[in-house]
Design brief:
Helix content: 55-70%
InterPro entries: DUF3098
Shape: rod-shaped
Structural class: mainly alpha
Keywords: Membrane, Transmembrane, Transmembrane helix
Number of domains: 1
Protein name: DUF3098 domain-containing protein
Distance between the termini: 24 Å
Organism: Williamwhitmania taraxaci
Pfam families: DUF3098 (PF11297)
Length: about 90
């Protein structure tokens, strides 16, 4: 009888060793948040010139680069915090 009890305890310990701190839903949400952050940085790109003597202020200081992109990046970081803090659903066996 003692061996059966020990065996089940070993199985439980092994199961606990391989549990992740976050659930699959958390990792999916984190991936989405990462995509949002990358999108924000892509929105910031551009506006440069091949000629260093030419300065195109309208293109560099556009609404997209100065306002929209930083808001998107900030939202991505807030979404990442939510993804990490969200409590994973309990598994029913």
């Amino acid at each position: 009888m003692a061996t059966n009890s020990m065996k089940s305890n070993e199985e439980i310990d092994t199961k606990k060793k391989f549990d992740f701190a976050l659930g699959m839903e958390n990792y999916r949400l984190m991936l989405i948040g990462f995509g949002i952050i990358v999108l924000g940085f892509l929105l910031m790109m551009g506006g440069g010139s091949d000629d260093p003597k030419v300065f195109n202020a309208e293109e560099i200081f556009s609404f997209r680069r100065i306002t929209l992109a930083p808001i998107v990046v900030l939202f991505g970081f807030i979404f990442e915090i939510y993804a990490i803090m969200k409590k994973p659903k309990e598994k029913t066996e």
